[in-house]
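Key idea: predict the complex, not the pieces.
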Amino acid sequence: MVLSQPNEQPLNVVPYPQEVTMISCNIPVLPGSITIKSNIESVILSISISRYQNLFFPFTKNIVGDDSNKIELSISIASDDETLQLGVDESYSLLIDQGTYQLKSNTIYGAMRGLETFKQMIVYDVVKNSYSLTCAEIMDFPTYQWRGFLVDNARHYLTKDMVLHIIDSLGYNKFNVMHWHLIDTVAFPVESKTYPKLTEAILGPHATISHDEIEIVVAYAKTYGIRVIPEFDVPGHSSSWGVGYPELLANCPGFPASSVPLDCSNPNTYTFLENFFSEIAPLFEDDYFHTGGDELVIDCWANDTSIQKWMKKMNYNTSDAFQYFEDQLDIIMTSINRKKIAWNDALQHGVKFNENTLVQTWTNINDLRVVLAAGYKTITSFFYYLDRQSPDGYYDIHYEWQDTWQDFYASDPRLNITSNAENILGGEATMFGEQVSSVNWDARVWPRAIGISERLWSSTEINNVTLALPRVGQFSCDMSRRGILSGPLFPDYCPLPEELSFSLKPVYQLSKDEVNLILKKKF
Amino acid sequence: MVLSQPNEQPLNVVPYPQEVTMISCNIPVLPGSITIKSNIESVILSISISRYQNLFFPFTKNIVGDDSNKIELSISIASDDETLQLGVDESYSLLIDQGTYQLKSNTIYGAMRGLETFKQMIVYDVVKNSYSLTCAEIMDFPTYQWRGFLVDNARHYLTKDMVLHIIDSLGYNKFNVMHWHLIDTVAFPVESKTYPKLTEAILGPHATISHDEIEIVVAYAKTYGIRVIPEFDVPGHSSSWGVGYPELLANCPGFPASSVPLDCSNPNTYTFLENFFSEIAPLFEDDYFHTGGDELVIDCWANDTSIQKWMKKMNYNTSDAFQYFEDQLDIIMTSINRKKIAWNDALQHGVKFNENTLVQTWTNINDLRVVLAAGYKTITSFFYYLDRQSPDGYYDIHYEWQDTWQDFYASDPRLNITSNAENILGGEATMFGEQVSSVNWDARVWPRAIGISERLWSSTEINNVTLALPRVGQFSCDMSRRGILSGPLFPDYCPLPEELSFSLKPVYQLSKDEVNLILKKKF
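Result:
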């Protein structure tokens, strides 16, 4: 056995595990030669197992090797508790040696993380057209318990199948939270039985998300150990609520329609929110519920004569009005039995959150320090903006665009934080959707977001770009063979299985005769 | 009739035509209701027509409208000369009015440009699920006669079908040159019968390009009026030649293998090049042949003892050696009846090109001025680097990555050039392939390269980003409905035909029972 050093990364696995001991063997395997047995019965785990068994061998034609190696991976799970909430135990250990194939974990979710690692240890050799299983002993657990990814379903409509496809890619990367940004200024795609006119604000025909679809998404995500947290962004970014229900909006003539927030002074606003949230929240299983709160155009409130009167009566300034709004949200959260997540903006307006609020810091590191100084728990996302040309202002511009993955990789959530760093629970990659639809989603997100998934899972000591690069490139190829359109980071060769649905073809097939005629070749 | 003003762009066509007169009618059309008749018989044109007829109506189910409007587009072409070379006449005129559907051009290639415009005038209404044909009179021609696109087939291997798919996307954008960067340091995928060991330098099994495949690519491109120009980059970027034929390379110990150029002192080098180019050139029909010449590590020559001796004997410095190399290339070009294109680097080394050389300026605008001052004809590409995080050093960083299309759009090839500007024949978009494979090609290139295609075709007066944006966004949606993975530039709604091969699906289909079991729902 050879113990891996901090400056060596001999195992081709992403995100890199916490402790790796390489074992000097390589076990030839053939499609169909790996079975998996678990000590507990779980529908959720069995779906995960079934899925991985389909992913182990992307190529199955004329594979070289003999079928004498029958491998049974034995999964041993300590607890059959399937609860999936913040802090769930995702640790696992793997021992792969000649004749020994063991995966141990405390929960089914830890077992899933181990299955992903095991999958990546089945290495395909494109020259030999053969597979081998890498031997190693691994002890692994996440550095951060919150490893989120924001999916924006408002700026572009994503079908249920596309969201499930995205969840596949998140699962492969050991992300464990899908932050589902469901509505925004431009659209309100979520169907409501209580308030059916909300979906008058959709981008186009059938661009809606039904309750059944939400349940499928939540269930599917659970088979990857991914918590799904909805965001309903209020009181700003909320003008879409007003398409069907204009009485919900403030009235500030002269302001662009897109910047008009909810009316904070009208008790009906809160009744509406409570009714709607009470309808929607039970579709999600997570303790947390995201109520947004970013980029409120507070001057609209100041210019609404009715809100002005109310503020005068209450002896409020706009900051107090925002405080009142957040306090009402807290009451609603209690009534629907959820904990609030809010973007950090309100703090800049002088608002104080309930101490149980989880603050999502999206602006910058100085604001993060403010959040921490005030004692809140937080998650950070300002390092991880996948839509930006320059992911944040701290870095030089790379020559090549995809090398921005290195910026993410360099950005530990606790980077340059000295006080209350333990209150940073993790981070979230954000893929805001102005310029991304199903058409270009994968290629925009991947492989760059691998820099985020490894940063949030692996040890902070695993941070050398040069060492990571070949692993990340190989994993990107692996992902593309699973159907995720994740491109390369350097010249390499990654042929895909023929049957993959995104093999691109010309729109017209020239016959040999046509070629000859076009080139006026002699017959 | 309403004449369009320079500051109005009422026609939703990309690239925007030179002269547009809107006619106030809109003709409802149904799938199958448009036929096309041409006054000349041409296999090339008939393939183009057949292809467009398949593209006119991406959706065919339950289309709303009546089928009384039978439309026959009448194509009238002045000449049946199918020669496709620099300067080919691509002008056309279109008159679409109630009962009048005329496309006129001087060549079949002009007719193809008109067909693309006509295709874009068939507008699909996603809300009504109906089609209508826009009425207008159009006179159109390209501002630049060289509108090229560099496809790098060396850093990643692109299959023949992928190259044809790329040609589809170039044709839709009225590009007229595919600059095929076929080999580079990392790989030599082009098969040779004369020198079969050249393809020992391939990226992986079967990653080769055969003569038959080259012919198909040339023929297919011709059906879009796209000239295909091969680049064999010498004497730098050439170490791949040495995998099978090490005697071709200089010998400079201590230099990275990837930077070793061809040996300029060995007469066999030139015999080899002449034999190989004589074998390859006839597969291409274009008058031009690109011999590269960029980023030569000339110090390697200075450190090769054998080259040192030769230079001493010839009384050469390294610059003279480079001059000698380029002069030998000119002799070979004459023997294979081709005109040379070369990157501008040699000029920086003091080399003088043959006056017939077309110089491709890739470095910067100051070097472009040097090229022009020396009297060469040139094409520019330094504005149009699709791989870069910041396309060039002249622009501010945008917030969103895709907005880099605006940098391309702002960059007329003759921008800030006052002398000999007429010698700039046009420009070339470059998609160097370090970080792009078939998996992410489309989403990396499009819709950003639309900024280049319109810049090179349309009038320089058509340069307002705000006016262009809705057209470009709509065209990007149109492209995605034709199978090009071109994403959005702003929130919009662009559903795709179900049968499109890149509709992404999850890897596992949950049954309803499984959803209920996972969510522990009561039955």
